[in-house]
């Protein structure tokens, strides 16, 4: 994507990141190997795909949301990709809101300060996909069979504010358990929407200052909110600029009953967390596993010009940790699972909110440009891992775990991940989770490249 000299310097507009132009549809895709006939459902992945060449400074996180979908049934696969048609997308360049290199703006009737792209995450709720945004925006309902945008989902007008990316659905109750935050107010919110779309719970949480959480934990009975020390500076808040810094304050997790009630706060050493692996309850302990960012001695690389600081901030340097929070004694304990760097963790979502033994992470050969060269399967009990390497020059995406229908073991299923190479070819790899290091059981040839992106989900077939 050309357009201007700034775009030429932007590492997130080229190579694996270059946006695709087509909204494609293709059936009965060619396969190397064999798609397991039991694999029935679809893998979806959201990510940024700027529809027009950026005119000024462009952050990777600003691109228009696009969902890539791959449906499996009877040993065959079909593909589609579609933009998430948010309110700002439909304004077709006419939105008063801009990306995060610009100052925050106000827009009448809107509860967001930046252009809402819904580009970050996609979850399944009430028979639909919901595309979500990391700055917390209006969820966008998307048809699970066609990827056509249905429209903004406000649950019959009952949604009081916004919903952040990484809100979650409970596999047993079907509830959507969400969180929301505001850039310039010392508040967070959490709530629940029932299986069939009724808002059943909503609660405001007071904070010492505005916060920038990225994820949350969900257990059967609790939500775990993140009060992290990477925040806007005072000056940034005054000037409404997206300038973050690391404050000298602890990391705090706020455990809130899902049915509503007082927050119990637990303090831990300073850290930042993008992504939670899973959370669960064990006796009186609420336990959260997540990838914790570790300090680094990197200096921004001048080859990226004005984008050097962005590339540095986006570099993923995280290790898996576990936090135990005792609801009776109020004591907390932090435990490191492993010292290898990994991120974009997923679990078998049938176990979301329940104790999991296995998680699947991406690993990188270049954490600045986030080229995902392989996957790790962690045994969270022993800290041991197995590795699955993509072929040389082929890079993967956050995988989705597809449980084998009727499975009784947590890791009985497949990981599905979109891959891309530097020549513009993409495949989806289907990896047997119990034979993890082996080559994929199937490689599905896709009709176009799937750019590097953010998060996905597996949706079981009906
Ligand atoms: Fe994320």
How would you explain this protein's 3D organization?
The chain is mainly beta. It has a single domain (5-460), classed as TolB, C-terminal domain (Neuraminidase). The protein is built from four helices and 33 strands. The chain has helices spanning 5-9, 87-90, 234-239, 308-314; strands at 25-26, 31-33, 41-48, 65-73, 76-83, 121-125, 128-132, 140-142, 149-152, 168-169, 176-181, 187-193, 199-206, 217-218, 222-227, 230-232, 244-246, 251-257, 264-268, 273-282, 285-293, 318-326, 332-336, 343-346, 358-366, 371-379, 385-389, 394-395, 400-403, 413-421, 426-432, 442-445, 456-460. Strands 2, 28, 29, 30, 31 and 32 form a six-stranded antiparallel β-sheet that branches. Strands 1-5-4-3-33 form a five-stranded antiparallel β-sheet, with no helix packed on it. The chain has a four-stranded antiparallel β-sheet with strand order 6-7-8-9, with no helix packed on it. The radius of gyration is 21 Å and the shape is globular. The two termini are 39 Å apart. The mean pLDDT is 95. Fe (ii) ion is lined by residues 120, 165-166, 214, 274-275, 454-455. Fe (ii) ion binds at residues 120, 165-166, 214, 274-275, 454-455.
Describe the structure using short key phrases.
binds fe (ii) ion, 462 residues, mainly beta, Neuraminidase, six-stranded antiparallel sheet, 5% helix, globular, five-stranded antiparallel sheet
């Amino acid at each position: 994507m050309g357009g201007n000299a700034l775009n030429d310097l932007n590492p997130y507009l080229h190579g694996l990141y270059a946006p695709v132009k087509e909204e494609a549809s293709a059936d009965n895709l060619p396969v190397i190997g064999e798609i397991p006939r039991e694999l029935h459902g679809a893998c979806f992945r959201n990510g940024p795909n700027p529809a027009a060449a950026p005119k000024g400074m462009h952050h990777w996180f600003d691109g228009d949301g696009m969902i890539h979908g791959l449906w499996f049934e009877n040993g065959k696969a079909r593909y589609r990709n579609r933009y998430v048609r948010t309110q700002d997308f439909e304004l077709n360049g006419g939105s008063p809101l801009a990306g995060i290199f610009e100052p925050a703006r106000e827009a009448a009737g809107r509860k967001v300060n930046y252009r809402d792209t819904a580009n970050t995450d996609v979850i399944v709720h009430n028979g639909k996909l919901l595309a979500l945004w990391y700055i917390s925006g209006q969820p966008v309902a998307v048809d699970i069979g066609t990827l056509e945008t249905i429209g903004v989902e406000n649950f019959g007008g009952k949604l009081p504010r916004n919903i952040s990316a990484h809100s979650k659905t409970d596999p047993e109750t079907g509830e959507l358990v969400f969180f929301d935050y505001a850039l310039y107010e010392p508040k967070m919110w959490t709530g629940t929407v029932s299986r069939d779309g009724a808002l059943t719970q909503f609660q405001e949480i007071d904070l010492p200052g505005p916060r920038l959480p990225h994820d949350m934990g969900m257990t059967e009975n609790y939500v775990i909110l993140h009060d992290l020390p990477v925040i806007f500076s005072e000056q940034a808040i005054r000037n409404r600029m997206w300038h973050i810094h690391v404050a000298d304050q602890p990391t705090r997790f706020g455990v809130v009953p899902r049915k509503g009630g007082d927050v119990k706060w637990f303090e831990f050493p300073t850290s930042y967390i993008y992504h939670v692996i899973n959370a669960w309850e064990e006796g009186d302990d609420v336990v959260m596993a997540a990838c914790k960012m570790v300090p680094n001695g990197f200096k921004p690389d001048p080859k990226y010009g004005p984008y050097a600081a962005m590339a540095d901030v986006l570099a993923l340097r995280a290790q898996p940790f576990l936090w135990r929070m005792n609801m009776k004694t109020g004591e907390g304990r932090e435990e490191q699972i492993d010292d290898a760097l990994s991120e974009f963790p997923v679990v078998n979502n049938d176990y979301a909110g329940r104790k999991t033994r296995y998680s699947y992470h991406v690993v990188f050969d270049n954490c600045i440009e986030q080229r995902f060269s392989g996957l790790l399967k962690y045994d969270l009990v022993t800290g041991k891992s197995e590795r699955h390497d993509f072929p040389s020059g082929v890079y993967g995406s956050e995988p989705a775990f597809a449980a084998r229908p009727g499975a009784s073991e947590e890791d009985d299923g497949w990981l599905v991940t979109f891959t891309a190479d530097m020549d513009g070819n993409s495949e989806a790899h289907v990896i047997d989770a119990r034979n993890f290091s082996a080559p994929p059981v199937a490689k599905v040839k896709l009709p176009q490249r799937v750019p590097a992106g953010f998060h996905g989900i597996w949706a079981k077939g009906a």
